[in-house]
Write a structure and sequence with these properties.
It is a single chain. The radius of gyration is 15 Å and the shape is globular. Strands 1, 2, 3, 4, 5, 6, 7 and 8 form an eight-stranded mixed beta sheet that branches. It is an alpha+beta fold. Helix 3 runs antiparallel to helix 4. About 30% of the residues lie in helices and about 40% in strands.
Length: about 180
């Protein structure tokens, strides 16, 4: 599918910027099923970012030598236990986590679930972040992101992901 990719540049409005010492290339996905329900991860954190329960798109770091499509398919299999078709690339969001001195290059994709299987979470994802799957409608997801702005990290994530979720809905509406 032909799509005009969006590009968003965001700053960290929650923590003071001292310096940035590394970039992280990340893949993320808006994942949906045949009923147009969306799948996200919920993280329950208590770390240097503070205590928070968050909603976030599934995804993670691109491994050395890995292309973006392979990376997003791997991450979705690991975190959600799903096999997907990549519909299109939505765009890139460049943002910062000043607290950990990191610049994030988030490559977002729209992906449709082909099948469900087993998750393969890391120990950190299980023990530190308590990742679980959220299945919700577009409207429910927007409300959940808005409600999670009650923490500094929740604000950063919502600022990054709500424009992508809105764009994904526009793309899906054109596919009808």
């Amino acid at each position: 599918m032909k799509n005009n990719e969006i590009k968003i540049e965001l700053q960290d409005t929650q923590w003071n910027k001292e310096y940035i010492d590394h970039d992280r290339n990340i893949v993320r996905a808006i994942v949906y099923d045949e009923n147009r329900m969306f799948y996200f991860v919920r993280a329950v954190r208590d770390d240097e970012f503070g205590k928070a329960t968050l909603i976030e798109t599934s995804g993670g770091g691109v491994e050395k030598g890995e292309d973006l499509i392979t990376a997003v398919q791997r991450e979705l299999k690991e975190e959600l236990g799903v096999s997907v078709d990549v519909v299109c690339k939505i765009g890139i969001v460049s943002d910062y986590y000043n607290l950990i001195h990191r610049h994030n290059i988030n490559n977002y994709f729209l992906c449709k679930i082909k099948s469900f299987g087993q998750k393969n979470l890391t120990q950190d994802e299980i023990e530190k972040f308590h990742l679980s799957t959220l299945k919700m409608s577009y409207e429910e997801a927007v409300i959940e992101y808005e409600n999670r702005k009650n923490s500094k990290l929740g604000t950063l994530i919502a600022n990054r992901e709500l424009p992508i979720l809105h764009r994904a809905k526009e793309i899906l509406d054109k596919l009808k």
